[in-house]
Design a protein that fits this description.
alpha+beta, 6-stranded antiparallel beta sheet, 5 helices
């Protein structure tokens, strides 16, 4: 049920035009200068950009796996505990975070992994 740190990094690395930056205790991920994710190795958590409605739904559904991080510019950031999530669900959330930040022309060229699995 848990996703490893390496598995999370592989998910991010499959996305197009992602830049990784290192902070003191975390890594951040951006696409075309817009941040969409964070990773904290010490706590084995990631922060992902989501729609406000998705943030609220995730936290309400499974507060042991998701917690509200902050809201900004109409988006809700959610903390995800890697120990409590399966890879396919995390992959969808990572893609959605990237999609919410990437330019439309780039999103149009990259297939949604959830659609490929069907």
């Amino acid at each position: 049920m848990a996703v490893s740190s390496d598995e999370f990094i592989r998910m991010v690395n499959t996305l197009v035009d992602v830049k990784r930056a290192e902070g003191g205790d975390y890594s951040s991920f951006s696409v075309h200068g817009k941040r969409f994710g964070y990773y904290w190795p010490r706590t084995q958590t990631v922060g992902l950009k989501q729609l406000l409605s998705e943030q609220q739904a995730l936290v309400a559904e499974r507060p042991d796996v998701f917690e509200e991080q902050f809201t900004s510019g109409g988006f809700g950031w959610v903390v995800v505990y890697l120990v409590g999530i399966e890879a396919d669900e995390l992959s969808e959330l990572v893609f959605e975070a990237w999609r919410l930040s990437a330019p439309e022309d780039l999103v149009a060229r990259v297939p949604d992994p959830a659609q490929r699995a069907q």
